[in-house]
Amino acid sequence: MEKYQKKFTDCKGNECNVTWLRIKGNRPGPVLSIVAGQHGMEHVGPGLLPEFAEEMAAGDFAGELRICANANPFALLMDYEFYPEKEDLSKIKDYYYSIFRHNYCPWGLGRDNAQTLYNMNRLWQREGDHGVAGRITAWLWQEMIEGSHIVLDLHGHQHPALIYSGAGTDFVLSAMPGIPKLEMENPDPDNWSAGDLTHQAYLAGMKSLCFEFSVQHARGEFEFEEGKNYLRNIMKGIRMLEGEIIHDHDVWKVPFDPAEDRKGFVYAEHTGRIRFFKKQNDEVQKGDLLFVIRDVETGEVLQEGRAPRWGIVGTLPHIVITKPGMFCTYVPIPELLLKAGTPAAKYEENWWLK
Ligand SMILES: [Zn+2]
């Protein structure tokens, strides 16, 4: 295992080290790069990658692995999506971020109201000076990402098991890991979104996938093994590890169609406490009970939220207390990408030589 490290200094003189590892297999094969920890509240990828690197270094595989577990140490130490480098950091005092204050930001740069270029995953291959996060992406791109055949970018959503992909989606690759849903993104992203790692890797001729799994603002140890298994499955499919890939659940694909998705939205009609009866990606029939909202003072049921149509359960909110008009969840209409129990297709032998 070879370790590469560089010290970065922010505009106020604070320092951090960014580290990536190169692990060479014992026979020829593709180069697989895995990045985690771009967003500071998504800790499961950063947590599991050092263990995964040790496992692979002790084992037997083809090709070369490049792993950066903690791409954005400043943001990870804050447990916040990005590092607000130029803001008055004393404003946060002893006030910590949490899953329940997910959209809050003391500098008015919350997730819902600012497309900030502090966000590391918007800075890949972007022209200009974008602070310490931009210098980290430039270094990682040049030293680690360039020359890769496949790039995986590990993120975390509020609930396990999401995978996004936009332009150049490789459906064979997408079915390999075992994440239950491939959620397609806009194949023609705006300038801000175009700076994400998987899109830039795609433009540079690599295959790429963005993983969204595991909770945010939390440790999520229960997902360490699941996450490592996603990575082993990909390594089997791209001929770095031996073995078949068989999932015990269906894998769905949700086409990029925001207008169609909106037809499946379900909203709160009352102020109250919400409790869900389905998990994200569960298949539901029209009329199935999705959630109940109960009155906070009396405990009485105020609303039963039901599936408006057949589909799978989309994202679930992280809040507990609802207000009238609040988005609760939605039911997108998916297509089946891979049936449970059916072996996932693998790339052909020596595919990386072509
Ligand atoms: Zn993220």
Explained architecture:
With 354 residues, this protein is α/β, with parallel strands linked by helices. The chain has two domains: 270 residues, Aminopeptidase; 67 residues, OB fold (Dihydrolipoamide Acetyltransferase, E2P) (Beta Barrel). 19% of the residues lie in helices and 26% in strands. The chain has seven helices and 18 strands. The strands form four sheets. A ten-stranded mixed beta sheet has the order 1-2-4-3-5-8-6-7-9-18, sandwiched between helices. Strands 14-13-11-16 form a four-stranded antiparallel beta sheet, with no helix packed on it. Strands 10-17 form a two-stranded antiparallel sheet. Strand 1 and strand 2 form a beta hairpin. It is globular. The mean pLDDT is 92. The structure holds zinc ion. Zinc ion (ZN) binds next to loops. The site of zinc ion has 3 residues, from loops.
Could you write a compact summary of the structure shown?
With 354 residues, the chain is an alpha/beta fold. 19% of the residues lie in helices and 26% in strands.
List its salient traits.
alpha/beta, OB fold (Dihydrolipoamide Acetyltransferase, E2P), Aminopeptidase, 26% strand, binds zinc ion, ten-stranded mixed sheet, 354 residues, 2 domains, four-stranded antiparallel sheet, 7 helices
SSE sequence, one letter per element: EEEHEHHEEHEHEHEHEEEEEEEEE
At CATH level 2, the architecture of the largest domain is 3-Layer(aba) Sandwich
Low-confidence stretches: none
Question: Nearest-angstrom radius of gyration?
Answer: 21 Å
For this structure, what is the CATH class of the largest domain?
Alpha Beta
- Count of β-strands: 18
SS field, number of helical segments: 7
Which ligands are bound? zinc ion
CATH fold descriptor of the largest domain: Aminopeptidase
Assign an overall shape: globular
| Overall number of structural domains | 2
SS class:
alpha/beta
Largest sheet: 10 strands, mixed
Corresponding CATH superfamily of the largest domain: Zn peptidases
Strand order of the largest sheet: 1-2-4-3-5-8-6-7-9-18
What is the residue-mean pLDDT, rounded to a whole number?
A: 92
Indicate the proportion of strand residues.
25-35%
N/C terminus separation: 27 Å
Helical coverage, percent range: 10-25%
